[in-house]
Design brief:
The complex is a heterodimer of chains A (436) and B (251). Chain A is of the alpha/beta class. Chain A is built from nine helices and 21 strands. The longest helix of chain A is centred in the last third of the chain and has 18 residues. The two termini of chain B are 34 Å apart. Classes of the chains: A alpha/beta (436), B alpha/beta (251). Chains A and B meet through helix 7 and helix 8 of A and helix 2, strand 7 and helix 3 of B. The structure holds adenosine-5'-diphosphate and magnesium ion (MG).
Chain lengths: 436, 251
């Protein structure tokens, strides 16, 4: 299916931001060619089996303006994670706003933070090599489209052995224009050097209005590097958010990810993780809630390409009204990947008859000495627990809320750092308060 | 007036008659023990008093201070002063014990027209009671009953009772899973709560608990009803002779 408006806006973005580097210009064109050739994915696409994006073809998009008064930030702050002490970088419609960001975030020793265009101007080849190729352009139309638009976004590089003591917090704000649907396509590059460590927090927020944010992250962890990556997707009611993450994890490195999705009409996370050296570890945990008018999809592919690697993914979702949840998880264990430890679990709590969840965990194993498991469970609120709480005097609504909160908080326990856990549970609590 | 009065209570589950005419009157300040073989309906009776659904009451009534409980929601019964220490306390992942205790205390305060408990006051209160009952501080941080041993669960139940100050408390096999030291601690906790206007129904298999919580009245429960009533000496008789006399008669 073609989506003319997406192509037109992306072409215009290319024209407005010409790149001097030939290789990157060629890559952009490859992206555009791939997207125009394949169009929007349909349900025959395995990775898009349960998520319909064809309505995007009907929307007339415009390029997102670089707007953002202080007011935009104020609304976003209410939606974002609140992590005291984190250094904040504000990106409005994909563009870094230094005037709204913490200056110290840009000047930390051993940590370089640049806009994507500055990084390209400084060293295009370095940017080119940081762009992952795990999500092949031909198979991933939205990654192709993002690649075609390559210019907005951020590059974060942590030098070898640097232990970042303060978390970086990226506050992504999508600010639609009244009466129009905006298209925002930022790219995030994160490179953690050998033995270095960083905590990266991302909060995707948005102002009311029609929008499509198509964000791609390319993450590279060198040997023994560590990235704690906490994401919150808490967009406005009409917002559509497509995120793709490709992570390359080398020997002994640890990618510790947790994503919480609470707001947005359509939120799709495409995760592609490659465990490339012995002892590499990936955790892709998360929680989500989807009510009427919300569709939340997590589709992941974890590739064990080396022996002695560990991957763990526990995802919990609460579905209410006519909310819809999707989990497609595949763990691939290559022949060389002996002693793999791979676990995957999706648990859904259905609060209404109209809610629905589709899960498809998949294991493909080519090695013979591995410990792998996967599972999916879907249930309703535990009647015994409800009675227990009510027998202690809690009214039925309070009891239900407490159980829902507990269901989600339970998976937040997997986040090791207490302030980060507190920030996440505070958002879950805020979400529950707002729905009652 | 009796604090609790159960009149000719008949109840069934999924078409199966479980309670077959329970009559029980408990005066304020009294401790009654209910002893009997397994599977005869003691927990069913407890659950029905606390308001669990899924049971069909075919006959009879349950009165608290002369008011029928049958049409009341479980939470309203709890707020009216009914407390059930569960035979099998429920595990609630993700909900910290302290959060749960605070919610329960606040529900009670709200019903009484008071504001929410102050955070410091709450901590002080809970820590003091927890210490008395041998409930470790780290248990308060853990999710409700998750990973608790059998004995820890029962202590946590008694802690809840101590915090919620019920008028009528049912202890459904609170002694099971407790070693002798824990049994003493729990019994001390219960005894500390004995007062002229609070009553207890202590359900147990064993006389052991009743040496620490000395009952005023002992009932033998079999076949879905009370088949014999006596004083504390009846518990000793049952300990010596077992329930063989009753299991046959009950059928
Ligand atoms: N929800 C239920 N569905 C079917 N049978 C039940 C249910 N609850 C209890 N029963 C049955 O009722 C009887 C009494 O059980 P219970 O009250 O637990 O006995 P006790 O506490 O005296 O051991 C048992 O035969 C039990 O199997
Ligand atoms: Mg029982």
């Amino acid at each position: 299916m073609t989506a003319l408006s997406l192509v037109t806006v992306t072409e215009a973005a290319q024209a407005a931001t010409p790149l001097t580097d030939a290789a990157l210009t060629a890559l952009r064109n490859e992206g555009l060619t791939a997207f125009t050739a394949h169009g929007l994915p349909t349900r025959t696409h395995e990775r898009w089996k349960y998520t319909r994006v064809s309505p995007l073809a009907e929307v007339s998009f415009i390029a997102a303006p670089a707007t953002g008064d202080a007011d935009v930030v104020r609304t976003a702050e209410g939606q974002a994670l609140d992590v005291p002490g984190a250094l904040r970088l504000v990106l409005v419609n994909g563009r870094l706003r230094t005037d709204l960001s913490d200056a110290a975030a840009l000047t930390q020793a051993g940590i370089s933070v640049q806009t994507l265009s500055d990084a390209i101007a400084a060293d295009a080849a370095a940017v080119r090599s940081g762009l992952g190729q795990a999500l092949a352009l031909a198979d991933n139309p939205f990654v192709a489209l993002n690649t075609a638009a390559l210019s907005d976004g951020l590059v974060i590089r942590v030098a070898a052995t640097t232990q970042a003591s303060t978390p970086l917090h990226l506050l992504w704000i999508t600010a639609p224009t009244a009466g129009a649907a905006v298209l925002v396509q930022p790219r995030l590059l994160v490179e953690i050097g050998r033995g270095a460590a960083l905590t990266l927090i991302e909060s995707q927020t948005g102002r009311d209005g029609d929008s499509l944010t198509n964000r791609v992250s390319d993450i590279t962890l060198a040997d023994d590097a560590r990235l704690t990556h906490i994401s919150l997707h808490n967009d406005s009611r009409q917002a559509r958010l497509l995120t793709a993450l490709q992570a390359r994890i080398q020997r002994g490195a640890v990618y510790d990810g947790f994503a919480l999705t609470l707001g947005g009409a359509l939120v799709r996370a495409d995760l592609r993780v490659e465990l490339l050296g012995p002892g590499a570890e990936a955790r892709l945990n998360g929680a989500y809630a989807a009510g009427t008018g919300q569709h939340v999809d997590t589709t992941s592919f974890i590739d064990h390409a080396a022996p002695h690697c560990t991957s763990a993914q526990t995802l919990k979702g609460v579905l209410d009204g006519t909310g819809r949840g999707v989990f497609q998880g595949r763990v691939n264990v290559r022949r060389v990947a002996q002693k793999t430890d791979g676990h995957q679990l999706h648990k859904a709590l259905l609060l209404s008859r109209g809610a629905e969840v589709d899960t498809k965990p998949e294991l493909t194993i080519f090695a013979d000495d591995v410990k792998c498991s996967h599972g999916a469970a879907t249930g309703e609120l535990d009647e015994d627990a409800l009675f227990y709480l009510r027998a202690r005097g809690l009214d039925a609504d309070t009891a239900r809320s407490l159980l829902i909160e507990g269901f989600l908080d339970d998976v937040v326990e997997l986040v090791a750092d207490e302030p980060l856990r507190d920030a996440l549970t505070a958002k879950i609590h805020q979400w529950l308060e707002s729905r009652s | 007036m009796a604090l609790i009065e159960i009149r000719n209570l008949h109840a069934s589950v999924e078409g199966k008659d479980i309670l077959k005419g329970v009559d029980l009157v408990i005066e304020p300040g009294k401790v009654h023990a209910l002893m009997g073989p397994n599977g005869t309906g003691k927990s069913t009776l407890s659950n029905i008093i606390a308001g669990r659904d899924g049971y069909t009451i075919t006959e009879g009534d349950i009165l608290l201070n002369g008011q029928s409980l049958l049409e009341m929601e479980p939470q309203d019964r709890a707020l009216a002063g009914i407390f059930l220490s569960f035979q099998y306390p429920v595990e609630i992942p993700g909900v910290a014990t302290s959060t749960f205790l605070k919610a329960a205390i606040n529900a009670r305060r709200k019903a009484a027209g008071d504001g929410e408990i102050d955070a410091m006051e709450f901590l002080k209160l809970v820590k003091a009671k927890a210490k008395e009952l041998g409930v470790r501080d780290d248990m308060l941080k853990r999710p409700v009953n998750v990973g608790f041993s059998g004995g820890e669960k029962k202590r946590a139940e008694v802690l809840q009772m101590a915090l919620l100050n019920p008028r009528f408390a049912i202890l459904d096999e609170t002694d099971s899973g407790l070693d002798i030291d824990a049994l003493k601690v729990v019994a001390d906790g219960v005894n500390a709560l004995r007062s002229p206007d609070r009553s207890f129904l202590v359900i147990t298999h064993y006389q052991r608990l009743l040496s620490y919580i000395v009952p005023d009245v002992v009932h033998v429960f079999a076949g879905g009803r009370i088949v014999r009533t006596g004083g504390p000496e009846l518990a000793q008789e049952l300990e010596a002779k077992g329930y063989a006399d009753y299991t046959g008669a009950a059928a």
